[in-house]
């Protein structure tokens, strides 16, 4: 016997959260696929990602209720308890982000920021362009006004490691969305598009 679908829902995520989320997805995967084959576009997508991350961090303090860090960033013990209950199939339903999702948001934002910074350093080292041009030079080169002497190979490796780390976090995030969507019988992907979540 089928059960009627719960159609009751509440608006949870505002446009800043939703649009920012999907722009970061589009920006990361565009740059991941394109790499630096079209350097100008790669760089401007990177700058856009920096702007979106900064806006999301600011919005985490001054935004709507469920956008604020105080609503979903919880203690390690709460996250651990939530994950234990999740594996047992009886995790509590949260109106906004659950404790595991809250930690994932912080990790994704931090990794995205680090990825963008490493890209900006590389752009300065390789092209002598961008906001750090003239401030950072390749180790061993003469840069009278440079404040920082950096190893280009180190930053290339760092950028690549961060790209792969970001991809790994995205995969874990998607798995978490699928698992919690099934557990709570709600479509979290659709919720991040419409802003509405079920009241279940």
Helical fraction? 55-70%
Radius of gyration from CA coordinates:
20 Å
Strand content: 5-15%
- Cα end-to-end separation: 20 Å
Largest sheet strand order:
1-4
Write down the oligomeric state: single chain
Write up what this structure looks like.
The protein has a two-stranded antiparallel sheet with strand order 1-4. Strands 2-3 form a two-stranded parallel sheet. The chain is elongated, with a radius of gyration of 20 Å. The two termini are 20 Å apart. It has helices spanning 15-34, 39-62, 69-72, 76-87, 99-127, 152-184, 188-194; strands spanning 9-11, 136-138, 148-150, 196-198. It has 200 residues and is mostly helical.
Features:
mainly alpha, 64% helix, 6% strand
